[in-house]
Every structure is written in structure tokens, then in C-alpha cells.
Amino acid sequence: MIPKHLHYAETHEWADIEEDAVTVGITHFAQEQLGDLTFIDLPAVGKDVRQGEEVGSVESVKAASEIYSPVTGTVLEVNTALEESPQLANEDPYVKGWFFKVKLSEEPTGLLDSEAYAALVVSQAH
Amino acid sequence: MKTIFEKSVPGRAACLPDRPEQYAGAYIPASLMRESFAGLPEVSELDVVRHFTELSRKNFGVDGNFYPLGSCTMKYNPKFTEAVAAMPGFTRLHPVLPQLKGAGRLCQGALEVMYEMERHLCEITGMSAFTLHPMAGAHGELTGAMIIAAYHKDKGHKKTKILCPDSAHGTNPASASIAGFEVVNVPSKDGIVDPAELAKVLDDEVAALMMTMPNTLGLFESHLPEIVAMLREKDALLYYDGANLNAILGKMRVGDAGFDVMHINLHKTFATPHGGGGPGAGPVGVCEKLAPYLPVSRVAKMEDGQFFLDYDYPKSIGYVSPFYGNFGVTLKAYAYILRLGREGLIRVSENAVLAANYIRKRLEDRLHIPFNRTCMHEFVASASELAKKGVHALDLAKALLDKGHHSPTVYFPLIVKEAVMIEPTETESLETIDQFIDDLLAILDQAEADPASLHDAPLTTPVSRLDETKAARDMVLTQDMLEDSRGL
Amino acid sequence: MPFVPHIDSQVRRMLDVIGAASVDELFADIHPELRPKSFDLPSGKSEMAVMAQMEALSRKNDTHLVSFLGAGFYDHHIPSAIDALCSRGEFYTAYTPYQPEASQGTLQAIFEFQTAIARLLGLPCVNAGVYDGGSALFEAAMMAVRHTKRRKMVICGAVNPIYRVMFSSYTSNLNLDLVTVPARDGATDFKALTAALDENTAAVLVQNPNFFGFIEDYTALFATAKAKGAVSIVSVYPVLQALLKTPGEMGADICVAEGQSLGLPLSFGGPYLGLMACTKGMIRQLPGRIVGRTVDRLGRPGFVLTLQAREQHIRRQKATSNICSNQALCALRALMYLCLVGERGLKRTAGLCLEQAHKAAARLTAIPGVKLMQDKPFGNEFALTLPQSAYGVIDRLTARGYVPGFPLGRYYPGLESGLLVACTEKTTDENIGIMAEMLKGSLA
Fold this sequence. Notes:
The structure holds three protein chains of three kinds. Chain B is an alpha/beta fold. Helices cover 36% and strands 11% of the residues of chain B. Chain B is globular, with a radius of gyration of 25 Å. Chain C is 38% helix and 14% strand. Chain C has helices at residues 8-18, 47-59, 80-86, 89-92, 104-121, 133-148, 161-171, 190-196, 219-227, 247-250, 312-315, 328-365, 390-399, 429-443, and strands spanning 66-67, 125-126, 152-156, 177-181, 201-208, 231-236, 254-258, 274-278, 291-295, 301-305, 371-372, 381-385, 402-403, 406-407, 418-422. In chain C, the strands form four sheets. In chain C, strands 2-8-7-6-5-3-4 form a seven-stranded mixed beta sheet, with helices on both faces. Chain C has a four-stranded antiparallel beta sheet with strand order 11-12-15-14, with helices on one face. In chain C, helix 9 (219-227) links the parallel strand 5 and strand 6. The A-B interface holds A 35-36, 38-39, 59-62, 86-87 and B 411, 468-469, 472-473.
């Protein structure tokens, strides 16, 4: 459950880097660790975000966790479907469960490829 | 079971004042009046009595069930303390009365209770002064953190951080943060604070370290003297979280041991009822150098023996409660202390520790106990081995409900996986404790033989396991939201 | 030994299982140098002796005064059924409902409490209560700080001064910009409040009726606050909310209140109950316990604590608040009170409080030199200006068994001649008459 074409942050966000925008979400591993999500707090459209900056949070019944932006730029769009249906991020974390899109202002550095992220997940899954 | 709103019959009433109402419009213009019907229940007194009696039957409480909820000290609450708090000479007392000039003479009894209670708490803990104002344990922590901030500010120290061990109650970091501090975590080693780890984070900006003693694993912090010395070196203060004070009554005094500031949960150590989640009380004690920063008012005694409220403390942090804290709770705890006396209080810690170790020993061959050595008033087991078979701490908790016991605290402290935290208290008889152990052992047998069967527990309670995810997603918090959701 | 049930042979048996020779051995971790330097407490006493001692202390308090004291804390009738029902051990010896299957009584009661308070205050989301009205006001302000990410607070000087002192204590280390807009002789200063609102304002905090008893309409002020992106917070008196325009109707985002008047005795200042209600948009910021309805695995309805991910036991230093306990038993009392008096009873109680206060005001202002501080509508309490210092008057009347009210000079320098007089449905016409005569005599 770690798509090859995506880039990953050590804090378990994924980034789909395309020419005009980067789509961001949380990984399958992250949603599995959190359990059934009940609320997702997303950044406002138009907000300038920096790589590694805390931009929102996710909540489940038993846990809460921050979301960090894996890239630097301006938020173009957020997935409003998550307001009513946070479970999309559980059921389909890489497609329907995306969080927000960013117009890059700087090239991201230090993101992991799928293999490196897979190794990270193995080391964290006890 | 219907809600009281679903039982409402328009026109029915229980407890109406006997004089007919005046038309309020005579006094207040219509523009300042509410347009809507409030929608309070219209029921008879018997409707209310039946409703709440039926609700009460759906609760476990110490009066009906063994309640070994670790860290919460669910001991028996003696009934006479309720009678004390209900004495009209106390319940009818208006709190602003002593603030009128000379009217302190009209509430000498209440002021004396507060004065004597503070004195007794000083003797029990070895602290120099107490305030009874904080209204709960976490409120005591916040008050303590505010005192720490005021002290360092006054001394010209630049201190921005408070340290909390990873085993700490969640309220510790939350209280420090609300008081304006940055919170820094201190990792434990072998279940206790490790001086080497402490040294790594202890810099000049550290205002204080918050410790629970014994800690949330039920273990005594044996490096305490070294920790005290390390903090002194950096002008940092040591805070004592009194959640577990019941384990050391008469065996160690917090002040003697080098702590600078502490709170006590009266509802734990001093047996005032937990009330389904409150009210509690969280008096704060301090060493001499912190006394000027305590909240005002402070109760004092004149040479002629009269008590009065003293507001003349220019360095005080101010008010943390509107008056003198949860006075009704103070009364119960004070009466409890008088009843037990010196010997009785020592017996509290001795028998609490005895019972916890007895249970620990009887379970140690069957349930993994991560830090298995002599514990204080509670210990933490782990269901991590069972979890491999699909039986989790939560399943044990629910299965115990079916045997008529409240469950231990589960999944806390966070540093133990699948934690099961058991605190029997000194008031439970050996018969009850043995029954609990036998029932738990039977559940462990069942977990071996048929792990899946435990997933259905509990079966004997008014409802079985509830869908918490649905509750959080749907957010039906009132009757009106329920009706709206049905309408959709 | 009281409340410890073990006989010697049982202690022996437990020690044998543990493998310890004595109970002392279990405390070996506490080094000798840490042992108490003293533990000098009186010996224990029998229940009878303790009761006698406490009874004697209670008699040192004079509770036979006729009192017109209020200042936000009122002596209302408490229906007997409340004490009878609350003394059921299933309620008062339980703890926070962490195991919902064994706590449906407490949980359903909180759900009903949330409903009753939401309806009374006209705002949909309610928590299970905080410590008191003052801590509720602080928590509300912090909700606004988190929601707006701004740090300026505009607070009206006619908000209960006790709460304002608490507020400044709590926030002294938090780098908030606290702007207090003074009240003018008991009147909320709308012009100055409106002028103080700007793009940096997190919240405006007002009270209705204000501390001086005067009833205001804050609708326009709250609309201005909204336009500036600030949160509107109002503190109210719940009994009068049976009649008064609700915080919801005025457009408030958060309402807080002291719940003491709903079935809790005065008890020298506590335990009381902080009420908090807010709009749906603010619910993620609401601290404390919240109960939600759901279903069990068989589809039966039931109740659980919900939105717990905001709380300290999960979020630790990032929690919305450090609050753990919720005054559940006080909330239960408030719910029972609202059920017992019901819709009509609360309206009638509020109406009687108004009626008695207006009778008292008429009697007192007939005394030469005694005036209402403002010619404005008031509720159960009102501020008078006396022709001399209120302290002396209070002192003289109290000595004769009548406490005529609260001296406003205690918290408002310059208002030394101000007297705050409160009435409830328990205030009799006779006592109003006697107090008025005494006051008249005292001023003559």
C-alpha cells in the first residue's frame, strides 16, 4: 500500500508532485495507526505553507495527530468531502481521501521515495 | 430508556413556586425578552424520581461494585462526611459574607475549618503553607504552575520550560502548557525517571520538573535525592503531583523530601466521593519561599483567636477560584482526617500498598507485569502477550464488567503497551479482592481457550460495546440534534 | 481502624503470599533519610465525636441573617427531591464514565443536561460543565484565542469583577492583550466597547444582566464583533434566561454561566458549576467532557464520551484545556432542578425574582437620597447609590441581622456609596419592608 509514484514525508504524509500542483494526503500506514478517523482539520485555501510546518490535524476516537505540509507553497484547494466523510481517508487514502493541493513556491527537499518510506514503515511497525 | 424530554407532557409540573407569576413584561421591555419557548421538561415529581432512579441503576459505583480504577483511588466514601457537608450552618453560608467589613465574625466556623484544614495538610505533607482554592487536581497543577511562573519572574529568572516524565498524567503537560510554559518530555528508564536522561534536557530555562510519587506505574522514584540536587543546581523547582499521595501517608513527607510545590486530590487520598466525574478539590501546598505567591485570599488567625481573610499579599498570583475553592469538598475531607487521625492515615497507605502487592503477586504468573517488583498502592500489568491471540486490555476490562467489577484503568500510562492499571485501595476486604482475582483468572482462562468469545463482552450491562466512531462522526449531543438527525 | 476491613490473620496471609515479613518491608524503597520528620496529627475520633465537633463549628456561622447578598451567587429554593436522588451511591460514588457500558446513568444524564442548557441558552453545543462561572469565562476566552489565532481581549468592566480578577490571574503569563472597557456608573459602555474592537481582537466579553443588575441587548455589539472576525462571549444568569433574550438570539458565539442557582447550595463558595455553550462552528474548541448518542453492537441506543481527542489524556500539552474533572454531580443537580421546576416553574421563579427586586427597588428608592444607579431595566438585582458610604450602612444593618447587599466599592473605586441588592423568590415582602425601614433609619 505504498504507491511507487508518490513522495513521502517522515511524518507519514504523501505528496503527488505534478507540474501545476502538488496533492497531499496521509499514507495508508498513518490512517491504519490512527484508526477510524472522525475529524480532519485542513488549512484554509490561500494559506502559505512551508515544508515541515504544522498545517492541520486528524482525529480518531483514540488518537489525534498533527498534519505537516510535505511541501512549500500556497494552498490551492482542500478536499471538502472530508468534512462530512473523514472515513474517505481511511478507505481510500491515496485517491478520494486526499487532503489539499499546493502550488509550489520552492522545490521540496528530503522527501522519501516509496522504497525508503517502506523501510521507515517497517522500522516503525512493531 | 426514554430521555426526560421524551417523557414531557405539556402542562404537567412538579415544583412550582406557590405565588402566581407576575407578567414579566411589566418590568422588562419585550425587546429584551426571549422569543422562543425554552423547552424544559414538563413532568411530575414522581416522573423525575422514577427517571433518575432508573438512570442510577445503569451505573457502577463504589457503593455497589469493586472499582479498581488505577490512578483514581476509588475507595469507600464514608457516609458521615455527606452529613457534615449538608449541615445548614455550612450550606447556607453566602461566600461574600466574610468580605464585608467585620462580617468575618459571622462565619468563624467556616474560616476555622479552612485554617485547620490547611494546618493539617501542612503537617501531613511537610509543606509550609497551603491554599484550598484550586477546585480539582488539574486546577491545582495549573495553580502550581502559575506560582512557579510568578516566583521565577519575581526573581528575574528567565524560565520557559517545564519538564514532565513520559509516565506523567496527561493533565501535567496540559496544565504547564495552559500556564504558558513549553513542555519537555523526560524519558523513563526501568519505569522511573533516569537522572542521565534528565541531565540531557535540564538547562537554564527549565522552571520546574513535575513528578508523580509514586509514579503512574505505582513505582517509587528511587533517584529522588539525586534529582532534587540536580534541579537545585539550575534554580529549577520540583513539583509533586499528589494523585498518589495515598501511597505514602505517614511514610514520607513531600516537603521533607525536597519538593517545592504540590497539589493534593482530596477526592482521592481523603475519600471524598468522585460524583461521576466531580466535584473534586486540589489544594496546593508550597515551601516557605513560594508562600508569598499563593492565591488570595488566605485565611489567618489573629492573636485573640479570631479568623479572618487576608488579601494583603502583593506578590500573590491573584484569584484562581471565585472564593475559597470547593468548600463543601474541603468539609468532607477535613471530617475524614479528624475521624482517621494520625494512626488511621498511616493505615491508609500501609493497607493500600499491602492490597496492591497481594494482587500483583497472585497475578504475576498469569499476566505480564513489565516492572515487576514491590509496588506501592497500584501496579501496571500488560495484556501485550494476550494481544497476540487477539485479546486486548479493552477485552479484559469489558469481561470484568460482566463479573460485576468495574474495570481497571486501561491504556494508561502510555509507556506500557496494553496497560492494565490496578488500584485496590485500603478499604476493600480480602474476600472482595480474592473474588476479583479469581474472576480475572477465569477470564484469562477463557482468553486462552476461546479468545474470540471475549470480544462480545460485556453482555450483562444495560448496553453492550458502543460505537464511539459513530458518536464522534454524527455528533448527536442533544435531544434537538437527535430530532434533527431523525428528520433527515 | 475505620474503613480498613482486614483482620490480623488476613494481613498475615497477604504478607505470606507477597513473601514479605512485615508491611514495613513493602516501603523499603523509601530511604530512611526520606522518612517523615514529623507526623503530628491528633488521634482518630469516633463518628459521633467528629459529628459533634463539626456541628459545633457549623454553629459558629450565622446563617439566620436576612440577606440581600447576591453578586452572581443566589439563595434559591432547592427542591428536596434533588438531595434525595443525588445521594444515591450509584451517582455519587461513580467516577468519570470511562466504561460507558457501566455508566449509562451518568452519560444519559449529561446528554439531558446538555439538552436542557442548550435550550435555555439558545446555543446548540454544551459541555458537561467546568469548575465555575469564572473558569468557564477563561476557557471561553481561550477558545476564542485558538479559533481566531489572535491575542487581544476586550472585556467589559461590568462583567463580574470576581471573574475579571480570576481572568487576569489566569492570563498573566500568556501574553494576551487585555483591554478592559470601564462601566459608567453601572452601565455597559457600548460606544467604547465597539470602538475597542479591531482586526486583532480575539473576543469581546460581556455579561447579561451585567454585574450591576442591568439588562442589555448585545445584538448590535455582537454583529460588530463578527464583522471584525472576533468571537462574542457573554456570561449570563441562568434563572433569568427563562425570560430573557437568549445569547443565541443575540448572536453570541459562546455563552458561559455560573450554574449555582440551579439547585446548588451556596456552601461558602463551592462546589459550583461552570456552564458553557457554543455554536456548532466552535465545538472543536470546546473543552471538557461532551457526551454523544450512538448505538451498541446490537443497534440499541446508548451514550458515550465523545470528541475526546481534544482532551488532555490524549493530547497532553496540545489539549484544548487541562481540565479533567467536570463537576458531574453538580451538573446532575442542575439537570434535576430544571426537570423539577420545569418550563413553567423556571419562568415563574424568574418572574418572582423580578417582582421582589422591583418591589424592593421601589421601597428603597422612596428613601430620600437613595437612587437607582441607572434608569435601565434590571433583573433580580440592582445597584443603588446611597447618600453615604455603603460600608457603614451594611455594617450597621448586619449587626441587626439584615445584610442589605454588597458594597460596590469593594471592586469599583469611586463607587463607595454603591449598594448592590439582590432578591430571589425566597425574599419576602415583610423582609423587604423591614430592611427598607432599617436603611431609612440608618441614613437619617
